Amino acid sequence: MTMRKSTENPEIFKRRRKKIVAGLNGAALIVASHPEQIRNDDVHHFYRQDSNMYYLTGFEEPESFLVIRPGKTPESVLFVREKNIERETWDGFRFGPEGAQKEFLMDAVYPIEEFQKQCIELLKGYEEVYYRQYKNKDADQLVEKVLLALKQAYGRSGYGLMTLKDADSFLGEFRLRKDEDDISNLRKACQISADAHVAAMKFTKPGVTERQVQAVLAYNFYMNGAARVGYPYIIASGNNATTLHYNFNDQVCKKDDLLLIDAGAEYNYYSGDITRTYPISGQFTAAQKKVYQGVLTIQQDLIAYLKPGIFFKDLHEMAADRLTDLMLELGLVSGRKEDVIKSNQHRKYYPHGVGHWLGMDVHDSGVYFINGEPRPVEAGMTFTIEPGLYIPQNDMSAPAELRGIGVRIEDDIIMTANGCDVMTSGVPKTIEEIEKIVGTAAH
To answer: Among 133, 152, 175, which residue terminates a domain?
Structure first.
């Protein structure tokens, strides 16, 4: 029976635990595994560990908890399922407490059945605990029982329920600032994603289906080391591209349409996130070219603006400002630009933001505002830049030649000390590059 173990060195996770201990300021931390995926009769869906749990342990089994007690012995305590040969025959290998302690460098490991009993002792004396609620109902109930038992154990000493603080925002600050290990994984995810997008471009021609293009992406993801996709594929031809989260991916790609692909591979729990839009025939029409070049120029200008100290809020405002200029130029809106933006008319054609943090989750942890003020982007932070313009086929107020055109261009960025590095630059995006590559694969 094959052992499921992360390919990463367990010392990486131990270093992360040491790093967050310093930030806990005397509080304890509880992290729960992701709940098991919904099962339908005999169909077992793939399981993915909770990102915070994997970030701190590398442990990928369900029904598990991590408890960290700064400065105490044991400091890092893992709760896992017991070995069970019968269940392993059906569901796969389990480490069990003994194997998990050895393989994951934990100070102590107990069976999950002992979580409540052990935590009553482990958490005595703590007044605050970080824990993320509402992601795993069963885990929430166990933690609530522990907190109630602790309150009862204190009797009339004056202690009430332990203060519960949000572990997601706490751990998000550590995950937001990427170290060399994080960046290495993210670069690999971006490279796998980029190579697959190039393969999809080469494969695309009139008559193929969106799902066949998806198959090319999937093949290249998995053949190059991805464990899974970072999020559901968006393979949207023609008017489908004006639906932001289109994922039917079942239509035939037609000669005169554009194809918008938003897809990213996941590697060691880090996700790429790339969007490209290009003509299925390999040649932009005049109207498509006008929209596409407008969005591309804006994206290039936004990336050129990036440097440490800028605010994401400013990027959002710049994108809205520049895209509104493009809307005015194309005849999609009219009037004074300031009035269009103030009345949110531009949101009809640009309803999303300009980007988001990127990491172990495709919309990664980390706040954009601190105490109500926008936070500056620092070296080591990773995010996307993805302006877009979407003109539905049924929008009778838009010029006829623009209807049914949806364009988004998205790249993955790491902020550096002096500027930024585009980790997904290997995917063509200029009109000249695109027209040279689309449809060149032998079918």
So the answer is: 175
